[in-house]
Amino acid sequence: MIEMENIIKTYQLGEVQVPVLKGINLHVEEGDYISIMGASGSGKSTLMNIIGCLDRPTDGAYYLDNLDLTKLAKDDLAYIRNQYIGFVFQQFNLLTRSTALENVMLPMIYGGIPKSERRERAEAALINVGLRDRLTNRPSQLSGGQQQRVAIARALVNQPALLLADEPTGALDTQTSQEVMKLFDNLNAQGITIVIITHEPEIAAQTHRQIVMQDGLIVG
């Protein structure tokens, strides 16, 4: 599914060039369940942003399902993000005045899905993450774990082939973190490819493959 060859990312800060990724080679098969670990500044979040088409590499090749993403225009990358990739973040990024159902329906508005189908698919996604009885609750009426489940449902509603999660348990207590990881286990069992960015070894250990980054390189 993912083929990255010698990915380099350098940021220009004034007259200074700051290398962040220094030659990443990464291959992810369809159905994989992997974690990317590393200390702050190791480059793991930058790598996730490139995998998720939120940023472009300075050099190197990135293929997603054999499509060369380094040659696509911004609008085409936005379409790829909306249709093929789901995102889950440490901060849930929910609209506070909207219900769980309305939050999950949002990506489908951008995708041009008819309103009747949006509601049906949003309900199905929330039921899939165990929130059948919370469809009309607003974020302030939900626990942290429930809010993250809404965020995961929102990431899944366009039926992405790839789910990217950046520190998805970072704002949760231990028990809730385990509940969220159990949910990821179930989603992967359904065939979704999952890549988790984490600094927590116990979280990484629950994935099927662990990638370790240090100073912009994969070291393990």
UniProtKB/TrEMBL annotation:
<dbReference type="InterPro" id="IPR027417">
    <property type="entry name" value="P-loop_NTPase"/>
</dbReference>
<dbReference type="GO" id="GO:0005886">
    <property type="term" value="C:plasma membrane"/>
</dbReference>
<keyword id="KW-0067">ATP-binding</keyword>
<dbReference type="InterPro" id="IPR017871">
    <property type="entry name" value="ABC_transporter-like_CS"/>
</dbReference>
<dbReference type="GO" id="GO:0098796">
    <property type="term" value="C:membrane protein complex"/>
</dbReference>
<dbReference type="GO" id="GO:0016887">
    <property type="term" value="F:ATP hydrolysis activity"/>
</dbReference>
<keyword id="KW-0547">Nucleotide-binding</keyword>
<dbReference type="GO" id="GO:0022857">
    <property type="term" value="F:transmembrane transporter activity"/>
</dbReference>
<keyword id="KW-0813">Transport</keyword>
<dbReference type="InterPro" id="IPR003439">
    <property type="entry name" value="ABC_transporter-like_ATP-bd"/>
</dbReference>
<dbReference type="Pfam" id="PF00005">
    <property type="entry name" value="ABC_tran"/>
</dbReference>
<protein>
    <submittedName>
        <fullName>ABC-type antimicrobial peptide transport system, ATPase component</fullName>
    </submittedName>
</protein>
<dbReference type="GO" id="GO:0005524">
    <property type="term" value="F:ATP binding"/>
</dbReference>
<dbReference type="InterPro" id="IPR003593">
    <property type="entry name" value="AAA+_ATPase"/>
</dbReference>
<dbReference type="InterPro" id="IPR015854">
    <property type="entry name" value="ABC_transpr_LolD-like"/>
</dbReference>
<feature type="domain" description="ABC transporter">
    <location>
        <begin position="2"/>
        <end position="219"/>
    </location>
</feature>
<dbReference type="InterPro" id="IPR017911">
    <property type="entry name" value="MacB-like_ATP-bd"/>
</dbReference>
